[in-house]
């Protein structure tokens, strides 16, 4: 196989995100080459200020790929795009696509496209975020016309007498499993695991076996679905099992 002949996907990720690249590599396998640019660090900034900075510097960060030919790019940071709302997010991606000369999608736009293709109208959010950001996420999906049936909060840890500690990068599979087991999930709702930094593939593998009829979505899974079909015309027979579950989706 000529590795350099494969489609090329640019991936923009927060500097401390340990999850996006391994999950994209696992989901896309040998069908797409993935290249990464990272947002700058923001020492001393609060979370909202950091996310607003990511939106402000995104054109420059995409420019870090230089003259490399890319066939498309994904911005693997859902939280910053929640701040834009669905219409602002869509317009921003369109502007970036025109500027770069290749399609640029946010993980949030990839999720909306997957929901539209699957006919998903109802979501239950599985969120590792701080409460204000979870509320912002919910408002984004509802503004896009989706119904949010409920929220399963997944703090990284909880200590009696203290506020829950929210950090997507520190959430474990065991923690996800524990929080889902304690929640009553409506039978007809899709599960959306929010954010690109919470590692979800092991938990999704378990859920897919236990609930074969439930739609399971994550920021990275939806983005890999978009990239596979947009860049590689993905053959579902060769796809990762979690992507094969989305095989009925029409482009």
TrEMBL record:
Highest rank taxon of the organism: Bacteria
Supply the Gene3D superfamilies for this chain: 3.40.50.12500
Return the protein name: Arylmalonate decarboxylase
- Name the source organism: Streptomyces achromogenes
């Amino acid at each position: 196989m000529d590795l350099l002949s494969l489609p090329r996907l640019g991936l923009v990720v927060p500097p401390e995100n340990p999850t996006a690249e391994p999950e994209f590599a696992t989901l896309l396998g040998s069908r797409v080459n993935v290249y990464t640019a990272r947002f700058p660090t923001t020492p001393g900034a609060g979370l909202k200020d950091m996310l607003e900075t990511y939106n402000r510097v995104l054109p420059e960060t995409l420019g870090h790929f230089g003259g490399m030919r890319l066939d498309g790019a994904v911005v693997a940071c859902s939280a910053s795009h929640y701040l834009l709302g669905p219409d602002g997010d869509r317009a921003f991606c369109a502007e970036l696509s025109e500027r770069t000369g290749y399609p640029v999608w946010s993980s949030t736009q990839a999720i909306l496209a997957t929901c539209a293709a699957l006919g998903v109208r109802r979501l239950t959010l599985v969120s590792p975020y701080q409460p204000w950001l979870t509320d912002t996420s919910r408002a984004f999906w509802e503004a896009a016309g989706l119904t949010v049936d409920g929220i399963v909060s997944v703090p990284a840890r909880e200590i009696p007498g203290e506020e829950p500690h929210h950090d997507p990068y520190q959430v474990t599979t065991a923690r996800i499993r524990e929080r889902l087991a304690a929640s009553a999930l409506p039978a007809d709702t899709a599960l959306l695991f929010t954010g690109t930094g919470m590692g979800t593939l092991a938990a999704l593998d378990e859920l897919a076996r236990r609930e074969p009829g439930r739609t399971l979505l994550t920021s990275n899974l939806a983005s890999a679905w978009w990239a596979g079909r947009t860049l590689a015309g993905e053959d579902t027979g060769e796809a990762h099992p979690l992507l094969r579950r989305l095989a009925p989706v029409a482009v």
